[in-house]
Specification:
single chain; Immunoglobulin-like; 6 domains; 33 strands; 42% strand
Length: 521
């Protein structure tokens, strides 16, 4: 009995163990499932409306009702059973739910019928995790680029309006790049992203005062493919910097001769012959002598090819006979001026007076004329004065040549001991001498055969006499007070008691010596 009882208990224990083992193993039987829809069994599609080239996403929420962790995936296929997209494996813990998805990019337009199914390698999947859906695929959207206007002024800088268009569909992200081209060199100046709605949109670009001759704008789609090519998404246009040519014109001021503390009304015209508007600036009247600002107003910009008139009030008028000033139109980087001269009112009866004393000017002119005439007379008398000898001694005045020769140092003659060349050196020289013929240097001490200093002095005097004689002037002689010029035969009267005397012919300006004696034939 004891053995039978023990065996029966062992059988009961084994049955319990087997049941527990079977309950702990995954459910894989034909009628038992592990994965079910978590809520709705309908597939969800995001990304619509869908255009060719766009990506759509199909997804569904799956619940793991088993006791073990398992993974599932979503498969999309067409009506013929060809898989178009297989989603990533999603790991789901027991009792948890997770979204399972698969992406798809349609390649053609029209109605697209798709089959979907959730599959798993870890357990059974409910038949509710499968089905079909339909997606309408549209033509790809078109992105357009154009320009509205380009305006470049000194006041506002370079402004450019561009137009961006997008055909019907959904919003699109695009990137805008703006470049400036100067002498063939391109430089990016702006880059930004925008989201476009279907339709037309105007973008304004403020580019300041650049150094450029062209503007280039490029549109780039972000994450989608437009129907048109990138060539149609680039726009470029040439630009010209603004040019102004300002000038000022003034009319007749009123009153014509203002008095002290009066106000002068001056009509003016601000002219601009350029092709762009000027900048706002100031119009001033500035005195030339002292730089005093007599009047100043602010003026507006003047458009290209136009003129802006107005009146300028100057005052109170200073107490001065005449006002010399400049009317200056100045702005940032440019300036135009015109001179203005106004004579003030004079209480002496005339409308204006000279800025100096008229009688003093007349007296000064007369005195200057007298000084000039006296100077001319004195100059003529001095230039025509005839040289004369000393009245007492009757000694003739020595010529400049004679005086120069007398002041010249005494010379002596030496012979070169090498080539016998005769050299003339100063009489007082005692150093060495270099022969210019043979370049021999020797002492200047007196050597045998050299003349002594007395001979040298005598020879120098003879040379002086010769030079003086050679340089003598012409001579005219007569026994009467009337004699003839030796050069032109002009008759001249020279008193006999003053002879001999050096004279000058007033006709030919020849200087000669007048003596008493027989006339030369």
């Amino acid at each position: 009995m004891g053995l039978v009882s023990v065996a029966s208990e062992l059988r009961k224990t084994a049955v319990v163990v087997i049941v527990l083992v079977l309950m702990s193993s995954p459910v894989s039987g034909e009628g038992e499932k592990m994965f079910y829809p978590a809520g709705s069994s309908e597939i969800a599609v995001t990304g619509e409306p869908v255009h060719v080239g766009d990506e759509l996403t199909a997804s569904i929420l799956v619940n793991n009702q088993g006791s073990n962790t398992g993974s599932v995936r979503l498969v999309l296929s067409d009506s013929t059973g060809i898989n178009l997209s297989v989603g990533e494996d999603v790991l789901i813990n027991p009792g948890s739910s997770r979204e399972v998805s698969a992406p798809l990019v349609p390649a053609s337009t029209g109605a697209l019928e798709l089959n979907w199914e959730v599959t798993s390698d870890d357990g059974g999947v409910s038949s509710e995790l499968s089905g079909s859906f339909e997606v309408q695929v549209y033509e790809p959207q078109t992105l357009g680029l154009g320009f509205g206007s380009v305006d470049w002024t000194l006041l506002s800088g370079l402004n450019c309006d561009i137009s961006v268009s997008l055909t019907d569909g959904k919003q699109r992200d695009v990137s805008v790049s703006v470049s400036l081209v100067s002498q063939g060199t391109e430089k990016d100046v702006q880059r930004f992203n925008i989201t476009l709605d279907p339709g037309l949109r105007i973008l304004s670009l403020d580019l300041g005062q650049p150094d450029a001759d062209h503007i280039s704008v490029i549109l780039e789609p972000n994450g989608w493919i437009p129907s048109n090519s990138a060539v149609n998404l680039t726009w470029q246009t040439s630009v010209t910097p603004p040019h102004i040519s300002p000038s000022v014109s003034i009319g007749v001021h009123e009153p014509e001769s203002p008095g002290t503390d009066d106000f002068v009304n001056l009509p003016y015209w601000l002219n601009n012959s350029g092709d762009s508007a000027t900048l706002p600036g100031t119009l001033r009247v500035v005195g030339i002598s002292d730089g005093m600002v007599l009047a100043q107003i602010n003026v507006l910009a003047v458009s290209g090819g136009e003129s802006s008139p107005g009146f300028l009030s100057i005052g109170p008028w200073p107490e001065t006979p005449m006002v010399e000033a400049e009317v200056i139109w100045s702005m940032d980087g440019s300036e135009a001026t015109v001179p203005l001269t106004v004579f003030s009112y004079s209480e002496g009866g005339s409308d204006w007076e000279l800025p100096f004393d008229a009688m003093a000017a007349v007296y000064g002119a007369a005195l200057g004329l007298v000084v000039v005439l006296v100077g001319l007379v004195v100059l003529r008398a001095v230039s025509e004065r005839t040289p004369r000898t000393e009245s007492d001694s009757k000694i003739l005045r020595e010529s400049r040549i004679t005086r120069r020769l007398e002041r010249a140092p005494m010379k002596r003659e030496v012979r070169c001991p090498s080539c016998e060349q005769r050299l003339r050196i100063p009489a007082e020289h005692t150093g060495s001498v270099k022969c210019p013929a043979c370049t021999t240097q020797f002492s200047s001490a007196q050597i045998e055969g050299e003349p002594d200093s007395e001979e040298v002095k005598q020879e120098s005097k003879e040379i002086l006499n010769e030079d003086t004689t050679a340089s003598s002037e012409p001579i005219a002689r007569s026994h009467e007070e009337i004699l003839s010029c030796p050069q032109c035969d002009q008759k001249l009267r020279i008193p006999i008691e003053r002879r001999p005397v050096r004279s000058r012919c007033p006709a030919c300006r020849t200087e000669f010596m007048a003596e008493v004696g027989e006339a030369d034939v």
